[in-house]
Amino acid sequence: MKQMHLSSIGSRHSPTIATKTVLLLSGSMTIMGSVMVAPVIPQIIAHFSGNEGAALLVQLAITGPALAISVFSPLAGMLADVVGRKRLLVLATFFYAFLGAAPTLIQHLPWLVATRVLFGVAEAVVMTCVMTLIGEYWQGSQRLGVINLQVITIGLIGTALYLLGGWVGEDEWRNPFLLYLVPILLIPLMKRFLFEPERPYTGKHPSSQVQHALKWKPLLSGYSAIFFGMILAFVVPIQSPFLLMSLGIHSTLDFAALSAWSLFISLAGSLIWPYMLRHLGVAVTHGVTFILFSGAIWLMCRADSYQAMLVAVTLHGVACGIFPPNAMAPVMASLTDQTRAKGMGCFTSLLYFGQFLSPVLVAILVRLNTDLRAGLNALAIISVFYAAAWIAAAVMARFSSSIHQQLGL
Description:
single chain; mainly alpha; Growth Hormone, Chain: A; disordered N terminus
């Protein structure tokens, strides 16, 4: 087994506990981009209120990184094939820290937006390299375990960063951006404990081999799940403050606590995911997860108190812990050595495009359905149909397999 594992990554190295720890921490950097700044958005808007179009530009500063990640991630995968995963990860981490902290010195809002977009490019490279290395360092059940640990680590670190960002930004909105300098501490650890897997095929025309080896069905279904799942996952951090304000709750600390709780409770979903995968399979697990999403959003729309909202967000958080590893695992297993970096780049692209599109889709549904609650109800109904499609696909696959066995095919 060990020989097979080493040959699969094509290297004399073998990942150690230190290797795993560095990768998990490196992958958790990506949660910093979306959670640390969120609590100080009202302060940023107030600071630049004198600028023309300040509200729109501030929103671009917050959502711009997600769009940049979505656009650049496939290119990051190609670049990783040329430069090398480890070298590119180290370089991207440096620019991630530098560009992340830059707003502490920037005085003009357009430059702030531009810096945040470039920060998104660096984040795309970091996430693509980390996921590619996880796919190349480990195989089978070991890989599933590392994927699940990554989701758990992101949940823990994300919860801490969300609260920390709100605390350090209470008096000055620029303070949370200084926390982006912390990943620089990971660079010497990356150089020490990570290694570059040797890719076994170096020919100039591998396309026919790659197309024959790729498993397109699980690949595309995983892409679909991560895209739609992220649309639903970002309902809580983006839409819950508006729902709370409609209940007369205006405390930014209450907003931050609700989103932080959603991140923290996602750990429960991550812990039950291996059990669900083992007993239900990928498709049925997706079906159950998107039913949970639908129920959570339905409850959010009917919540008449902070406590009721907390119940809905708890259900939503559990779903958020299940769907990322359930989407990522079959995608990693479907990719070949030659396509892994580009394939994970596309996965990262769809993940963040779903994040970027979430408020846009809700805004469209709101316009079609007169108010926020009606729009979110429509999204919950769409989620039910999506869940039903996954469950129907699983039933049809099992029925087809049973028929083949009876016919001896």
